[in-house]
Amino acid sequence: MKKWLVVLAGLIFAVLALAAFDPTVYVEATIGEPDTLDPHLAYDTASGEVLFNVYENLIAYKGRSVSEFEPRLATEVPTVKNGLIKDGGKTYVFPIRKGVKFHNGNPLTPEDVEYSFERGLLYDPEGGPMWMLWYAIFGVHSRDEALEEFVGKSVDEIFDKSGEPKAEYKQKVIDFYKQVVDPAIEVQGDNVVIKLKRPYGAFLNIIAQSAHWAAILDKETCIKLGLWDGKADTWWKWKDMEKEKSPLYAYAMGTGPYKFVEWDRKQQKVTLVANESYWRTPAKIKKVIIWGIDEWSTRKAMLEKGDADSIAVVLEYLDQLRGNKDIEIIENIPTLSVTVVAFGWSVSPSSKYIGSGKLDGNGIPPDFFSDVYARKAVAAAINYDALIRDVLKGFGKRIPTALPEGLLGFDPTLPLYKFNLQEVQNNLKKAWNGQAWQKGIKFSVAYNQGNMARQRVAEMIKMYMEMAAPGKVKIDVQPLQWPTFLDATKRGELPIFILGWLADFPDPDNFIFTYYHSKGDYSGRQGKKFQEFVSTPRKELGGKSLDELIEQAAAETDPAVRAKLYIQIQKFAIDNCISIPVYQPVGVRVQRKWVKGWYDNPMRPGMDFYSVWKEQ
Length: 616
Description:
Elements: H1 2-20, E1 25-30, H2 45-54, E2 59-61, E3 69-71, E4 85-86, E5 91-95, H3 110-123, H4 131-138, H5 143-151, H6 155-158, H7 170-184, E6 185-188, E7 191-195, H8 203-207, H9 219-225, E8 258-264, E9 269-274, E10 287-292, H10 296-305, E11 310-311, E12 327-333, E13 337-343, H11 372-379, H12 384-391, E14 396-397, H13 421-430, H14 435-439, E15 441-448, H15 452-468, E16 473-480, H16 482-490, E17 496-502, H17 509-516, H18 523-526, H19 528-535, H20 546-555, H21 559-575, E18 580-585, E19 587-592, E20 595-596, E21 613-614
Parallel strand pairs: 1-10, 1-11, 15-16, 15-17
Antiparallel strand pairs: 2-3, 4-5, 5-7, 6-7, 8-9, 9-10, 11-19, 12-19, 13-17, 13-18, 14-18, 20-21
Helix pairs in contact: 11-13, 13-15, 17-20, 20-21
């Protein structure tokens, strides 16, 4: 009798296990949630992963390559050989694929492509990704820079307080669209032609799939939702739209393999379903749940039970998953990414993260970290080797600056910051002419909740700075939800923040410009004192500013000369401790063994759910 009961129990368990396995549903347990689903404002991997699967671009990276492309919504990848790159690299022709439909059934047209590029360029939200297209196509870093150049006046002079152009400049603002933006992206029959002001070698990288800022939207739907109406005499009405007010903030509708269903903010959960009318073939996974689960123990339990197919792993606890026959650990995945401690050189005076806002023992002044010794004190308070050994479990590399290994200009012989409590103390005694040590300081270090590596960095800064200066330093470690954290950095509220950067395109300029140029994406987060510092000519740079040197390196065509310029830039960044490179990640992925077809590409912001299937 017992034998039969055991057999019966085994059969029931097997049936239940089989019932739990659903080859049509994929659950990814990750950290946090998107910041926004507006493709022209999103600039983080959590948002980018959703957009990657819902929208499509004209071209895509081919498999794991970061230099080879394949067609998507264009039927051919432009090359000089096929005649679709002309005028010495200044004109790109994209034949638009016919028979493709958006998720609402509207047909894809060349006009949709033109509208998508133009809407993004004209919107160009502060802190967003559109600077790349402005720089690639027009050679400037923003809409405002191009507009000021065209009108001959500053933006503050062109527009009144309500955001409308002043009467004397209105026609010029209209002509800006007609004479600058519109001619750069044109529909010619079934083709879209993009004209660059000068040749720019990274252009195809900047618009390839994963670059959601070049995703193709449905013009008709966008206008119905309340976005730019496509007219020359109205475009400015949408140029400063706030994040939550965008009709695309929590809505997405493209041509991609997955349709957007819901973004449940309370549960940090995004749901997608397969597009059964997809122009290639429908995805094998029919439902995707991207679920922000900040607690490691919950994510781990979900993976072990089979409730999640893959999870964001805490490397510190990776060994807890080893030996499980149902779990696959993929190690040593190449990345083009860095994690950096950055400073607010001039923080918003209203920030709640700087205490009293004074050098009185209960706070710090807003520009506290404009002092190089204050920055160097923090750099000496991070135990880099212990972080990589104990927290990352070896899945990280020391890097001298914010430039990752694998790109032109990386030099492993450049000096690294060292963990040294005596140096923490020495630098604090020099900061603010000794006043920081004499009066004491208090401030907060923030990180995005659920990111254990960044939490450990913040805790190290607190522990070792307080240890080096007992009673003189008080630091609060502040975990923030991802969107809250991002907003606080964009508003310039954080004196110290820990952020990573995944390459937008595989070129050193994407990292050097981002972190060290006064118009880089992190510039506004670091404040006006930072912008003044890097834009001021320096004797040690031959009379040039760091900005000028970065621009010279970006424009240089000789790789050897370019590499030397990047080394000069990095030496200056190290000497002045502009920011602190903590590590370059080495990728690790954990998934159920029933997941098949996954592949890595360092440019991708997350999962390509179309490529995978489940099989026991």
